[in-house]
Amino acid sequence: MANRTVKDAKSIKGQNPQHLIEKIIRSRVYDCRYWKEECFALTAELLVDKAIELRAIGGVFGGNIQPTNFVCLVLKMLQIQPEKDIIIEFIKNEEFKYVRALGAYYMRLTGTSQDIYKYMEPLLNDYRKLRMMNREGQYVVITMDEFIDNLLREERYLDVILPRIQKRHVLEESNELDPRVCVLDEDLEASDSSEEEEKPKKPAREAERRRSRSRSPRPKKDRELDRRRRDKERDRERDNRDKRRRSPERSKRRSRSTSPSGRHRSQREIDHRRKSDKSKRDKERDRDRDREKDRDRRHKDSRRDKDSSNVDQEVAEANALRAKLGLPPLK
């Protein structure tokens, strides 16, 4: 009795609404725990609370064909057959995305072609993510617009055969449906207007391009003369460079620099510079050592003074205490 369709339910596509779902899946739904515990004696008002608790969509999963909560609620809606206004409110609900998905799926199963295109096509602008359970029992992520597009195009979705609907262009030709207005039309119009504004600039660019193309290349004879001129300049620079290298002043300077006296003189200067640098380093090292000794001496003196002051203070305190007790002072 709990699995029967309500008495005043209307037939859909000439058959019992529950028969839109195949018998094997329907029997699995009747045997599952969610149907027996959560969907028993469920009304249209209580169905909203169950739809809000949904956390995923899907058909059946696993090797033993276990139904999801989504399919159980779809079958319950086919059984009780809620009013059309309730389904429209499900679809227009923007706060709970799984409630919207449930209403869209039920509308695809039971609605007419005009209602399906009228109420489901606006959902193609909803890009929120949905969690869907596949046949292996794993969760995958899809978007709401992808879910709606599959409902409008596929013949079987979420393990349920979807009823056939008329093509959209047929309904438009028979004036039963208004032409679809795409959201991207505004962006296309804006881009067209911007292209029209840029059109006056294009002729100028085209004219420049044509002018550059119209320039004839230089004759071959002129190019050959330029090449010869560059070769002559390169040879002249090479000759001047060789002459500078072979000049007598340069050879004298080279011989002077390589003489033994010059070599000894430069070596003596180098040795003298090394000795002076070494003496400077020794002086700096001695100065640093003296500074460290002075610093250590001052530190030891300050520590000794501090210790002596502490001892004197302790002796004074002890003498004061002994004076109060009537004892002789310490030496």
Automatic annotation (TrEMBL):
Residues 188-331 are annotated as: Disordered. Belongs to the PRP38 family. Keywords: mRNA processing, mRNA splicing, Nucleus, Spliceosome. It is found in: Nucleus. This is Pre-mRNA-splicing factor 38. Its main location: nucleus. Residues 188-197 have a biased composition (Acidic residues). Residues 198-209, 219-242, 267-295 have a biased composition (Basic and acidic residues). It holds the Pfam family PRP38. GO terms for biological process: mRNA splicing, via spliceosome. The keyword Lipid metabolism does not apply.
